[in-house]
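Example record used in the benchmark description.
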Amino acid sequence: MTDDEIFEVVRRHVLDVLPGVDPDAVRPDRAMRDLGANSLDRMDVVIGVQDELGVRVPTAALAGVNDLRSLVGVLREHT
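Model output (structure tokens):
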């Protein structure tokens, strides 16, 4: 799966969890926190993406995730 394909899954989940967010604002360089996501929202996105992709990412691997691009990278490493 390519980074672009993984990003589209992440983007879809971000928009599902944060329905008031402008879809154009969901870009790889943005952090979910900057989009208005609290810690529970971020967890919902990550769990939903993992379920859809059929992967499990260790919590420690998510510690360095600062933006959607880095989240995609971590997810790609575990697919």
